[in-house]
Amino acid sequence: MFGLSKLFSAKSVQKQPIISALAAYRSAAFAVGIEQDFIADITQNTDKSITVKLNLPFAAQSEMPHVAQFLTERLKIDVNVTASVHLKEAAKFKAIKHIVLVASGKGGVGKSTTAVNLAGSLKNEGAKVGILDADIYGPSIPMLLGLVGSEPVTKDNKQLQPFDANGIKAQSIGFLVPSDDATVWRGPMASGALSQLLNETDWGELDYLIVDMPPGTGDIQLTMSQKVPASGTVIVTTPQDLALADAQKGIAMFNKVNVPVLGLIENMSHYICEHCGEANHVFGKDGAQKLALKHGVPVLSHIPLAIDIRESSEQGKLIADDTDAVISKTYSAAARLVASTLYYQQHHNAIDVVITED
Ligand code: ADP
User: Fold this and answer.
1) What ligand 1 atom has the least distance to the C-alpha of 268?
2) CB 320 within 8 A of CB 120
3) Does the annotation flag 108 for ligand binding?
4) Topology given in CATH for the domain delimited by 96-347
């Protein structure tokens, strides 16, 4: 513990106690603390207040009030923490740093809802984000982002312009081809359309591009996942046995094509009773956890079955953008964990992901 006198005995701020305190901070996303490398600047405001500026290598801005509180308690002075997000890695595809596939073994588990809210949360965490709807069986991203009726625009008859949905760049396979007859799709055709959308959309600079994949683990999904230079995939499942069995096939498929599985998201995990606040495990309990343990992947989030998720979706609004909604915090925590997993996957060999209750 460092007292005031020690911290401010010299004219300039003594950085070491602050560096040590940052290193001791722990959360699911900062499972190994906040590294010295992330510090951009430390300024002394008054003799009892400092500002720490961080340069985060992954999207996790909304955690800064917690970091500030932790430092304030530990250092016994007022600490204000600000952060901006600058991913260190080089772009892997055009000017896109990470492409993240959101997949599911089975349809109707909430994959698109999860994909779009993860995109929204990553944006809210300070990143430049895009979403590509590649779900040939039912492209729903335009509806979820309130873009129904919009027509794609090209620039100089070459590049497709992505739509701007509240700061998220969006493109959908549904704009390219009519979706009424999904049976016409074959692997090469679907992967060709996906490559075309990836290549011909003017994405600009992106930190994360989320790809909403078609559900299933067949030939089409396999061919499509081979076409995309993805950094990793997130598999969405419900706790039901059938969905879990299909999620397991999904893990096997991504292992086969060497796309790292970043983790599972258990959607419709439980239902919080409006009256007593108790969690009911409508579709079963601990299923995703067991599957995750078996395959050595983490469960990134347990998202409840919640009426406001469905209602927001139907209105073309992102619940992740509604800071008053409890559920937006759940999506934010999942997004920070996805972002930090991508970072640590490249910068540390392996770390244990600590899942906390928040
Ligand atoms: P998928 O992409 O897997 O086919 P969707 O994202 O389209 O699934 O979701 C299917 C339906 O379930 C939609 O009506 C959506 O609003 C609803 N839904 C998804 N996740 C939740 C949730 N956690 N709570 C309540 N409804 C949800």
Assistant:
1) 23
2) yes
3) yes
4) Rossmann fold (3.40.50)
